[in-house]
Amino acid sequence: MEKLKCGVVGLGRIGWCSHCKEIDGRDDTELICVIDPVAERREEAIKTFKTRAFPTMEEAIKNFHLDLLVIASPSNFHFEQTIKALNSGINVLVEKPMAATLEEADEMIATSKKKGKVLAVNQKHRFMAYYIQLREILDSGILGKVYRILYRSYSFSRRNDWQSLKRMGGGTLSNTGPHGVDMLLGILGGKAELLFADLREIATVGDAEDVAILLFKGENNELVEFELNSAAAFPVATWYIMGDCGTLTYQNESFQIKYFDPEKLMPLAVNDSLAVEGRTYDNQDRIPWQEKVISLDKSKALNLYDNLVAVIRGQEKLRVPLEDVREQIRLIEKAKRFPVFINLPDKSGNYQ
Question: Which residues, in sequence order, are bridge partners of residue 68?
């Protein structure tokens, strides 16, 4: 079968390492051009990938008939470049965040439908082994009905690149947040409601948040706490999930589960007597706990490009539906506009 003719916009960390190398190394895709305003990066791409390079999208689109254009430019350019590519009749894979606002996301989705072109977002964590394995464990029902989910990412980093600046669409909620929110939506069935959001600038050198704490409620009343913290010195379990029959944690490539079989519980009825027999708090109930540790099975990982190529050829549906990405953008946008409960001083000591 003929290879898909692909181009990549942006030769930075993600564009170069995640997309150019992947496209160049596949049997079903061909990297026929790259776009970047920096001449040195264009020259490097020409030598490394034996491809054509242009400073603008317009020149690339004029010179080639592209089947797929990957938008891996800084976040502020995603909307404009995606719309331009779709209107030129090109399928698009855009990096996260898909858009800065829900209005932009809706226009991108509407344009893809109008033009009959595929629009996909690089929500790569849904393809990773640990997330696929986590979903399998939850789907097994071993925890019973899940009522509480904590997702936490802790590190300490004094970030000073463009993703630390508000004017460039930076901040941890737009940079790292789309991955976590997307994974949570996958577990929650694609819908959630934001209850609380607190965004702070702690260790960052820029002016965008590096700590974000969000509280969601799922459609089945799951209470979800989502925290991205780049000013925390000690790591914690990434996932902590509680059900009415057990609890799961995930850390250091290992799932630890403590659970019980509800059918093996002893019969227990309410005792409404005000005089507890024996004056003891022990009602003799013994939970038949079981424990297991499951190591990460890295072979479960899937490849985003396998899915994307199949979608473009009409053989599959997107593993990450655009409806889920739209909901993610809605929640992140709402979190950024959430009322401030705590009046914190800025870096000059002045209260905002």
Answer: 6, 91
**What tokens appear for 311 in the block?**
């979608």
Nearest of 101, 178, 170 to residue 337 by alpha carbon: 101
Please report, in tens digits, the pLDDT of each residue of the chain (352 residues total).
799 999 999 999 999 999 999 999 999 999 999 999 999 999 999 999 999 999 999 999 999 999 999 999 999 999 999 999 999 999 999 999 999 999 999 999 999 999 999 999 999 999 999 999 999 999 999 999 999 999 999 999 998 887 888 888 888 998 899 999 999 999 999 999 999 999 999 999 889 899 999 999 999 999 999 999 999 999 999 999 999 999 999 999 999 999 999 999 989 888 888 888 888 888 888 899 999 999 999 999 999 999 999 999 999 999 999 999 999 999 999 999 987 644 455 556 554 4
Q: Number of C-alpha atoms within 13 angstroms, CB side, residue 6?
A: 29
DSSP state of 15: I
Domains and CATH numbers, the chain: 4-122+303-316 (3.40.50.720), 126-302 (3.30.360.10)
Please tell me the pTM assigned to this model. Answer: 0.90
Helix (H) or strand (E) holding 89: none
Q: What is residue 191's three-state secondary structure? A: coil
Q: Nearest CA to 4 among 324, 315, 300?
A: 315
Parallel/antiparallel/unpaired status of strands 239-243 and 146-154: antiparallel
| CA 67 – CA 83 distance, rounded (Å) | 15
